[in-house]
Amino acid sequence: MPAASQIKVMVVDDQASMRAMIRRALQDFGFKDVRDKPTATEALPAIKSDRVHLVISDYNMPEMDGLAFLEAVRKDEVLAKTVFIMLTGSSDREVVQKAAALGVNNYLVKPFAPAALKEKIERVFGALT
Amino acid sequence: MRTIPIIQGEHAVVNEEGVVISTLLGSCIAVCLHDAEKRIGGMNHFLLGEPGPDQKLNASELQRYGLHAMELLINATMKAGAQRQNLRAHLYGGANIIAGLGGIGTANAAFAKRFLETEGIAIGHVDTGGNRARKVEFRPYDGKVRSRCVADVPPPPVPERKPEHCGEIELF
């Protein structure tokens, strides 16, 4: 299993404060290569050019929401196998089911503690350290 | 005039005339967001700014914090039709009512201001600090706010509530 330091991560959330909080948490887990974007539209070309391994994306975003983003990733030949973890609001039960159908690797309900994020990542990648 | 009272941990968003959102604050913060063009507004009420870096909290405890409360308010306001670039915020509360609590009200107000600056949301009226409780009444349709000190009126007790997502779906 890759150590956290070898995994390239893209964080996508329209709120800068949330992106900053997730970045801090990922750095605490040992991730070295973390980037972020405020919209899925900006993130899509960046994850392709940067060969990102893990996308952590909010669902509730303007322009392209998390489901449309996930669908675009899964339909892209190059990106299709990228690990995708979606962040949802507490009332997004239907969203989680749709995300599962589209092939999301895991999801996390906001608000979440950093330990919960680590656990979700480790369920996909295995132990990070 | 219809009044929607909110308490700690709640928010309300309204886009109709003749409605007031009200709350009673001590060291808590209420942020009023308003889109003057769309005539949509909302208010939240949160207990604490943000957890310390070493605090171990579960999901239900995190719901008391401003980071979550602000996201809920912004999302709800936009869902109602507001445009993010039009949003203007007014800040209230953050009093240091009980001596010896380490300036929790001041820290809360600082968090709210920092959050709004980080998110690029314009800040309008600010009435924070002091050592007295405030009653805040917000008219979301026209964006008018009245904040007045109400000494000796303690904030209402917060009812016990279950974490909102205790019915989390098990898919993975």
Automatic annotation (TrEMBL), chain A:
Domain Response regulatory: start-end pairs: 8-125
SMART domains: REC
Entry's transmembrane regions: none
Keywords: Phosphoprotein
Record has Lipoprotein as a keyword: no
UniProt-listed Pfam families: Response_reg (PF00072)
Gene3D superfamilies xref list: 3.40.50.2300
BP-aspect Gene Ontology terms: phosphorelay signal transduction system
Modified residues (4-aspartylphosphate): 58
InterPro entries: Bact_response_regulator, CheY-like_superfamily, Sig_transdc_resp-reg_receiver
The keyword Phosphoprotein belongs to this UniProt entry's keyword annotation: yes
PANTHER family: RESPONSE REGULATORY DOMAIN-CONTAINING PROTEIN, STRESS RESPONSE REGULATOR PROTEIN 1
Protein name: Two-component system chemotaxis response regulator CheY
Natural source organism: Stakelama pacifica
TrEMBL record, chain B:
UniProt keyword terms in alphabetical order: Chemotaxis, Hydrolase
Catalytic activities: L-glutaminyl-[protein] + H2O = L-glutamyl-[protein] + NH4(+)
UniProt enzyme class: hydrolase
Gene for this chain: cheD
Species name: Stakelama pacifica
Gene3D superfamilies, per database record: 3.30.1330.200
GO biological process: chemotaxis
Protein name: Probable chemoreceptor glutamine deamidase CheD
Domain of life per record: Bacteria
InterPro entries: CheD-like_sf, Chemorcpt_Glu_NH3ase_CheD, Cytotoxic_necrot_fac-like_cat
